[in-house]
Write the structure tokens for this entry.
Amino acid sequence: MWIKWFDDGDNSGKWKKSVNQGQNWYDLTIDNSCYIGAHKHDGSDINSGMINVDYLPSSVALEDAANVFVTGQYIGSNSGAGVLNLNGAYSSEKGIKFRDADTLVGQLLITSGNQVLDGPGSLSIRTGGSTNRLVITSTGQLTERNRSTPIGEWISPSTSGVLKTDSGSLSDIVWSTYAYTLIGKTMIISFWVTFTVTSGTYNVTIDIPGGFTSNRAMLSVAQIKNNSVNEAGNCQAGSGATILRISRFATTPVLSGSCAVYGQIAFEVQ
């Protein structure tokens, strides 16, 4: 196949293209609206179909490929809230990552649940040469491990049936303090209770609250009032125990009469 161009001599500004296909000639008319070479169109000429990505400038974001933005991007405006939705099946590597483009070190990865970063509090995470690894400043509360009570705040559970004895019997039980707080897997319990021993007993026990179990043996000093006399004793959380055991240091550790135990102990929970 070959193409021959010639002027038809009518000065109409039209050209004819003759195509030799075998032994036959075909005349094709090309008017002034057709350009030989690069197409000259703008966006208004495109009504449907797909444009090859090779014809798009680098500033156009792609729907089905990774995009690299070299300037700041904005979602929404001052008059309307912007929302960025990340949809898809859950993955431990799925989320929003902020990291150095060269070293790929450092990232914030949000994978599930509700995360809100809002002023006027501040959250700082620093790596590298900085000594600050995590700085949280907030006028609100901080919770952990899906607990409803914020870190450092104390809980005062029911005292019903909490104080018991290994042997003998107790009466006139009056609690002044029975409270605990949790920081991570560390539980701190404070107790202050008075009672009357109606028959001799060697030890009294206090339930570990919240359904928790001690993970290792821990010991602290406690104050004991035995038969209206104050003296030193100990408070022990045994490994795997669900109670605190409180006893006298005395050679004959029997409690009697008007008694009380006061103290505080910290230990690891399971």
